[in-house]
Amino acid sequence: MAVQALAAILGGTQSLHTNSFDEAYAVPTEDAVTIALRTQQLLAYENGIGDVIDPLGGSFFIESLTDSLEKEAEKYIDKIDRLNGAVASIEQGFQQREIQESSYRQQKNVEESKTIVVGVNKFVSPYPKIPLLKFNPEQEDKQVEQLTRVKKTRDNNLVQKTLKNLEEVARGKENTMPAFLECAEAYASIGEMCDVLRRVFGIQKEYLVI
User: Fold this and answer.
1) What whole-number distance in Å separates Cα of residue 115 and Cα of residue 209?
2) Could you list the residue range(s) of the whole structural domain that residue 35 is in?
């Protein structure tokens, strides 16, 4: 993680977030969050790399990679333009399909050892058991009880009115944020607001990669 973060900064990233090592399994533990935070702090306060705007600027290798990246990006922009723009290409599933196909190829190459990932398909060490964060089951019961109480005591007519307004706004071209705020102030739940958006926009559909 530290190496990847360092590479990102050397590449001129404008912002950096380091994920906790257990984030793929559950809500991160305090120890995992602390390690991720310390990684950022080491880079920010110990080596001073953030004090330089472009540490690798002028490097022939890096500049050639940048040129190559720009050319490939321009090819994608041309494809999107031929599909009548970003919105139209999203509606046709172009971006999602490209991401999925790229992920599939990468995973296949890793599994076939065509792409080496140290610790995954080469130089593999036994993984220690990761202590995951566990919630007290009573907290779930408490949250359900609290939500039930809110739904009983709120003005449900007002809730339905704000949800209907959110749906109308979502179907149009206005900014949805004011409508969201009205829903929240009326104590509409996140689930109820998401249900509205699902009715309007549907849900994501995966594309089959062959």
Assistant:
1) 20
2) 2-51
